[in-house]
Amino acid sequence: MAIPQFLKQQKSLTSRWLQIAIGLGLLSGFLLIVQAWFLAKTVNGVIFEGLAITDVQSWLWLLLLVFVVRALLAWASEQAAFHGAAKIKRHLRNRLHRHVQALGPVQSGSEHTGARVNTLVDGIEALENYYARYLPAMSLMVLVPFSILIFIFPTDWISGLVMLLTAPLIPVFMILIGKGTERLNKKQWRKLARMSAHFLDMIQGLTTLKIFNTSKHEAEVIARISEQYRQNTMSVLRVAFLSSLVLEFFATISIAIVAVLIGFRLFYSEMDFLMGFFVLLLAPEFYFPLRNMGTHYHARMEAIGAAEQMVELLDKPVYQSAEKTLPAVIDSVFNNQSIAIDISNVTFSYEKGRQALHDFSLTINAGQRIALVGASGAGKSTVVNLLLGFVRSSQGEIVINGMNLHDIPLTNWREQLAWVPQRPYLFYGSIADNIRLGNKQATDSEVKKAAALANCDEFIEALPESFNTHIGEKGEGLSGGQIQRIALARAFLKDAPLLILDEPTANLDKESEQLIQQSIDQLAQNRTVITIAHRLNTVEQADVIVVMDKGRLVEAGSHKQLLAETNNSHGLYQKMLATFVASQHEDAL
Q1: How far apart are CA 201 and CA 180, in angstroms?
Q2: Of the four, 345, 355, 548, 561, which is 20 to 30 A from 116 by CA?
Q3: Which residues, other chains included, contact 445 with Cβ-Cβ below 8 Å and sequence gap of 6+?
């Protein structure tokens, strides 16, 4: 999507508010003409007609009334424009956040978090001035000067002609200078995104930097990046100030020409003072909308720089599931059934030249425990990502209980599965709220029961506020084993027929590993279980061990079957097991 098209698309969401803001601004422009007329009449009457102050008092009161009404109109126009811009910002935030959610963790993880946050926060805020200032100013730049010319031409066609000929010079030079500003703004936004990403990385890795004594070096890097950003910002401001100077110069020269022409005609008695003074009062106001639009033209440049990142994000394709499948059909697939999965000839690549799966096929019967094993990069996580709906296969199909996964709405499909990753994420909040992610409607007793099944109730009850104890982001304050057990409690609470595990016992002490393994054995009863396995005890308990290598299935069978296949041409599982025996380290798998 082109950036101008994207900005224009959002404009339709708030056209009513923008029309109100422009209408109020135009009405204020008409009152400006009335204000100039009353002021000219008052000065002319007092100086040339010999009127006393009391004789023009009614005009002065009317002049004061016009001042007040114009101030109110300016305030109302500002408020209307602000509400319109706020509506667009709310819509864009919602749209971009939903798009990020739809992309999923795999595609979203390809970009720095800091850059993404910069786009979703600062980028959206940068659009406010475009919709609240620039667009109304763009319309008023045409409407107000045109209205003034309607009153000037019948009274002083010479001044009107000068204004008509000089007015286009301001937007022309503004656009010429603005082209350079647009390029600089785009470059500046990209640098801001990179700087935000770098800063966030440094904060998240502060512990590592301290341990390796590189924090001082990174502080110097940040100082250098900040200085470069400051210099780039000043470059943009130099261009902005230059354009403002040019606009002010042409406006001032044009007003001076009008004033000189009126002065000569007054001197030679070719023009009445009242009309000359009236036109002279309107001359600065004629050029003011043009200068004002020039000032807000930089809001357009900033908006284009910010919108570039948003368009790039929205252009990323999203996996679309069939959201219109009849509920009765979905119920017939999942109602009171375990999950059976048939993966046929699936091929998938994260990017060109990076194939993760090639012609992968696997049949998983309902109630089976499957262990996926293989070296790093073998494709185990890709199989799980496909089942979770984070990515979509480019070839082949995945059939769930006889129905193609692409025909099942993701919302309905994810209700049928529970996922326990290797590093579960706990959100800031109470422990009960974190467990209740498995079932938002769960009662306190159901939460406690799930915690007991996951062997985490004992340590939770020992906390100061038990289940209401608040924990920090990412489970700050809890050990790795405690976090893992809370994640298992979520799975117990959800009670889904399909359980997907990413080696939940990895990187844990023996005691935590045993407690979690006991919970998993209980949770796996009467469920289909798929585990990415790295440890021998996990593999031995599986009904079927699926050995993967370079995105292909090379062996499948139980632990005993794979050991008994002495004539197997691959023998990869036996080699992996032999490595384990030699190293006496369970992580060899």
Answers
A1: 32
A2: 355
A3: none
589 residues of the chain, pLDDT tens digit each = 677 778 877 877 888 888 899 999 999 989 999 999 989 888 888 888 888 888 888 888 888 999 999 999 999 998 998 888 888 888 888 888 888 777 777 666 555 666 677 677 777 887 888 888 888 888 888 888 888 989 888 888 898 898 888 888 777 776 666 665 666 666 666 676 667 666 766 776 666 676 667 767 777 777 777 777 777 777 767 766 776 677 778 888 888 998 999 988 888 888 888 888 899 998 888 888 877 776 777 777 777 777 777 777 777 777 665 555 556 666 666 766 678 889 898 888 877 767 788 888 888 888 888 888 888 778 888 888 888 888 888 788 888 888 888 888 888 888 888 888 878 888 888 888 888 888 888 888 888 888 888 888 888 888 888 888 888 777 777 887 788 888 888 888 888 888 888 876 665 666 666 777 777 777 778 888 888 877 666 677 788 888 888 888 888 888 888 877 655 555 777 777 776 655 544 444 5
Both tokens of residue 273?
Answer: 């003072």
- Compute the distance between CA of residue 209 and CA of residue 196 in angstroms, rounded to an integer: 18
Q: Which two tokens stand for residue 495?
A: 């009670």
Quick check: helix, strand or coil at residue 501? strand
Q: Which CATH number fits domain 3-314: 3.40.50.1010, 1.20.1560.10, 3.40.50.920, 3.40.50.720?
A: 1.20.1560.10
Look up tokens 């995105």; give the residue. 551
Please list the alpha-helical segments (H only) found in 109-168. Answer: 113-118, 124-125, 128-129, 135-152, 157-166
Amino acid at 437: L
CA terminus-to-terminus distance, the chain = 46
Helix (H, G, I), strand (E, B) or coil at 417: strand
> How far apart are alpha carbons 262 and 85 in whole angstroms?
43
Cα maximum dimension of the chain: 122
Coil, helix or strand for 570?
coil
Distance CA 155, CA 153 (A): 5
Residues in the chain: 589
Model pTM score: 0.67
- At residue 96, φ and ψ (nearest 5 deg) are -70, -40
Cα separation, 476 vs 473, whole angstroms: 6
E strands in 1-50: none
Phi-psi region at 452: left, alpha or beta (left = phi > 0; alpha = psi -120 to 50): alpha
Provide DSSP, 290-344: HHHHHHHHHHHHHHHHHHHHHHHHHTS------TT--HHHHHHHHTT----EEEE
Residue labelled with tokens 């696997």:
362
Write out the DSSP string of 331-398: HHHHTT----EEEEEEEEEEETTEEEEEEEEEEE-TT-EEEEEESTTSSHHHHHHHHHTSS--SEEEE
Q: How far apart are CA 240 and CA 259, in angstroms?
A: 29
Q: Compute the distance between CA of residue 479 and CA of residue 71 in angstroms, rounded to an integer.
A: 62
Domain ranges, ordered by start, for the chain: 3-314
Half-sphere exposure of 318 (CA within 13 A, CB side): 18
